[in-house]
Design brief:
The protein has 285 residues and is mostly helical. It is 75% helix and 0% strand.
């Protein structure tokens, strides 16, 4: 087996792309054959949009007016928060799938095949990201039906999905790290709650951020995800924790926010890959 996944073709004739496609199909089939969790994720995300709009709508409208967003509907302002919540929730299921493979012995069977372990987990991630895309589009569609406006149009929706996938990749890596270290689904469930709600509420996700939490929010990856998505929704620069005027317009938000998310993905992804390599090497031995 090619342990590093660096070569394009293994001695058995496998190609990296072919191995990726096999694993995309495997994880997609698992989702199709057991769609309950996937459908529940969509229901929870759409329910969150409706519930938060109904419960916080009046308070949110007042907060938006004070922050200079008087012409923005609360459902429009709320959309990035719900998209981040949905993305994080789905991303943490990646670690649960890994733990199930570890518990069932499927992980051991997979890593001793001629497939590159890198291709195995690339395919797994691709299948999970595809499911997140479906969920995101469902939430965006409902938000538009409820009156939310996306000033950047269809191109903006593509950008919104791309930003959410960056956030999804980041927390998929986090969940896989937790899964490999703890090897327990309950720990991953607890970790998802530990990460999700503090990070969402310590950001400008639900209402404009106060100065009291601005310092903390600067170290919060969700702040950059929310700001990038909101810039695409509103079509303007809304970056809250940095002051950048080099690029002009909404690019002053998008460029630094995406740069931060990419950098975090590289760091956390490297940790996840190292742990996965160690686990696959130990299993193969």
């Amino acid at each position: 087996m090619s342990g590093s996944g660096a070569s394009t073709t293994t001695e058995t004739g496998n190609t990296f792309l072919g191995d990726v496609c096999v694993n995309v199909e495997r994880w997609t089939r698992k989702a199709v054959h057991n769609p309950t969790a996937f459908l529940l994720e969509i229901v929870v995300a759409t329910f969150s949009l409706v519930l938060f709009t109904a419960v916080f709508g009046d308070v949110g409208a007042v907060a938006l007016e004070r922050a200079g967003f008087a012409d923005v509907e609360y459902v429009t302002y709320l959309l990035p928060a719900v998209l981040m919540q949905a993305t994080m929730g789905s991303a943490f299921s990646s670690g649960m799938g890994l733990v199930r493979d570890l518990e069932s012995g499927m992980f051991e069977k997979t890593v001793v095949t001629p497939m590159s372990w890198t291709a195995v987990f690339t395919g797994k991630a691709a299948a999970e990201l595809a499911r997140i895309v479906v969920q995101l589009l469902a939430v965006v569609g409902l938000a538009v039906a409820m009156g939310a406006g996306i000033e950047t149009g269809a191109v903006g929706v593509v950008g919104i999905v791309a930003v959410c996938l960056l956030v999804g990749l980041l927390f998929m890596a986090v969940s896989n790290v937790v899964g490999l270290l703890a090897r327990d689904e309950e720990v991953i469930n607890a970790a998802s709650m530990l990460f999700m709600f503090p990070l969402l509420f310590l950001s400008p996700a639900f209402v404009p951020m106060s100065e009291d939490i601005e310092f903390v929010a600067a170290f919060n990856p969700i702040t950059y995800g929310v700001d990038a998505v909101r810039a695409l929704v509103l079509g303007e620069d809304v970056l809250t924790v940095l002051s950048i005027s080099r690029f002009g317009g909404l690019a002053d938000t998008l460029v630094p926010a995406v740069a931060v998310l990419v950098a975090l993905n590289l760091v956390v992804g490297a940790v996840a890959i190292r742990l996965l390599a160690r686990a696959s090497s130990a299993t193969a031995a």
